[in-house]
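Teaching note: in complex prediction, the entire set of molecules is handled at once rather than each chain in isolation. The prompt given to students was simply: 'Predict the structure of this complex.' The entities are:
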Amino acid sequence: MISEANNRKRNYNLKPADFNTKKRPTWCVGCGNYGIWNSIKKAFVELKLSPHEILIVFGIGCSGNGNNFIKTYAYHALHGMALPVATGAHLANHLLKVIAMTGDGDGVGIGGNHFIHTCRRNLDITHIMHDNRIYGLTTGQTSPTSNTKFKTKSTPFGVMEQPINPVALALICGATFVARGYSGEPEHLKNIFIKALAHKGFSFIDVLQPCVTFNKIDTYDYYKKLIYKLEDSSEYNSGDFSKALQKSQEMERIPLGIFYQIKKRTYHDGLEQIKDKPLVYQDLSSINIESLMKSFY
Amino acid sequence: MAEIKAFSWKVGGPAGFGIMSTGLIFARIFSRKGYNVVDDKEYPSLIQGGHNVYSVRVSTEKIFSLLASVNILIALDEMTIDLHMNEVKKNGFIVYDSGIFIGRDFNYKKPDVNFLPVPFDRLIEKTGAPKIVKNNVALGVSVALLNYDFNMLKEVITENFKDKGQKIIDFNVSAAKAGFDFIMKEFTGIPKIHIKKNYSKKKLLLTGNDGIFLGALNAGCKFYAAYPMTPSSSILHSFAAAERDFNIVTKHAESEIAVINMAVGASFAGVRSMVATSGGGFALMNEGLAGAAMTETPIVIILCQRPAPATGLPTWTEQGDMLYAVHASHGEFPRVVMAPGDPEESFYMVQIAFNLAEKYQIPVIVMLDKFLSENNFTCTGLTRYKIKINRGKLIFAEEDIDNNEDYLRYKITDDGISPRAITGLRNGVHIANTDEHDEYGFSEESAENRKKMMDKRFIKLNAINKEIISPDLYGPKNADTTIISWGSCKMPILEAMKYLNTDKRIFNFIHFKYLVPFPVKAFKKFMKNVTRSAVIENNKTSQLSRLIMENTGIKINKQLLKYNGRQFLPEEIIKGLEKI
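The expected output is the structure of the full assembly:
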């Protein structure tokens, strides 16, 4: 018997620690991943989600190793493949809260093509991109979000390219919720996560985080000087696409918060065949291909 | 003229003229009446221009393949006459569009062949139909030359265009009638072909891809992802059209890399999922294949081969990817590779593929090729109850998990198979991990754990080996020459076997449907009685010979290989075997 109803039971008494596994994080002391880890667990608690209602699809990298430290359904995917796996799992069971948890290499490097197309689909999933502007787990090479002239093991004479602007990219590719957070502002980050997870459609959060071991440029001090919050200005309207795009281009200082959010039909709302039931709960014993076979006479 | 039991028909013309739909209508007017039909489509990778050919062979008896010669050739352009005139049999017909020779001399000559000029454009003008329906004139002409039932043609044309409205139907039918009447009036004196009446029940007309599609539906495939690639694309079209009626999600994704990872994601969540592609797309899927294997996520991959390397010959046929599929991706893991030989086997074997994938939580690759994927063959019927759905140790309900113990997704068991919880179960929370992992799914790099987990995954082979069916033996048990082949070559070989066995030589034929795991015991047993053998396959380096060597140490010395992008003709097999 398939107990679909169980899926919807809410557990109201969970604490962030209930989302810990028996494994302790292996991230470096001071790593931005801790801030993201704490914020997402708190967001789950405030949204009254239980571990079995959530699927996190991890990519590869220090962020990807998080699969061992958060207790939910998890799929630790291949490098760059978190979004396609999350897409398939969501379409098979759209009652799950599906999150893709990736690094910047995963998200806009090797997985860049998948990022572009996932943004335009408006699937009801959330993409949290840990953006430390460096490849950490492979001990310090340039990332697609590294700034020009940045010297790394793979670019000893400095990065030649322009960095990708993930917020702007998500906007022009059609994401319906685009935000930037910072691991050094965990409370603010938690609130973005809550709104992103509650958003009906594709939500993307570019989470800036220092890599204390391999990135000596984009440090806590660097971010402290530059960040400010969009919501501190009463004028900012996250429903205005051109404003959002303009804001995403700001370089002198770093705005945090929700750049853009609109309501649009989600991908699965357009699929009549799963209106009544997610694919995973559909009965296979009643399939009848007799009439279809007749069309081959 | 005496009745004949079988005939062959061919139509050729420029791409963009609707040759493909014309051929299919022609094939169907005979399968409907219970005739045995096989067809073949040749077309370049172009939309307009270039040369398209559609061949159909019809018989009152069981047939497996086309033959080299034809009774009727319909030439909608001059190139068709140039290329195919010599294939026309004695007393056969070459029907050509006389309009293309206006102002020029017609100087083709072939003794014992009837050249029939038909003014296609003029006939259409009289009916008032647009020129685009020209092909239907050819159909009408063909039916008249065969003394066949015009009403059958009318019925199939009507059905074919039923979604396009009565006006379009009328145009097409009137064009066909004009062709039919023209032959009846203008060529009263020529001896026509009398095809023997057939009284058996109507037959299904299926391609290998149709077999895969219908089989996958019947097996409960709920998620299908693909990126268009010839010759696999018709499976995508069929799934896309059926998704609402059969509650399936079909996703045309951004690349084959996305395709395989989406399908693995859906399978992880708990649904049966499948992908199909050709060699190039399969290459892009390779990392994902290993991802499925490491996370023990079931997946069915349909690999419709075409001549490679690289873009190769996109619309032609070859069996060049066998050893690639057998060894594809990095690292070592158990898998199943199978290769049906006809559409009926495709239908049943893809259902077995789903069962094996889920029972053993492994990837299963089903190999076809352009010849099997796109050509139609008649079959008497398909039974949807033959292969029962078996989802193995998949857990759907919380009560099926023991709450007194931790749920271990990768629990070490005697058969290597661990109970797999679908998503959304309160007590089934787990990690599927592409990193090497422990029984929980946590990343774990210890030497002891690595060995334990490798052994766990490989011990499944004990049970998988028992499920692998022996190769099929066709012909007598004892023969002086044994043909060995795999996949779609079965069809021309079976056709050739009708003529091979004489007083002088006796042939039999071993057909491999399972390649991995290789049926070692069964094959060695067969080979004990074999005196002389030859491998026949559609590639350059005889990959089956190498697979046999790798698995059994048996060296097959004789090979008959074809690798020009075309399937064997039975005549080529007969001739080739004379030298062996």
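Point out the following to students. The first helix of chain B runs from residue 19 to 31. Chain B touches chain A through 71 residues (CB under 8 Å).
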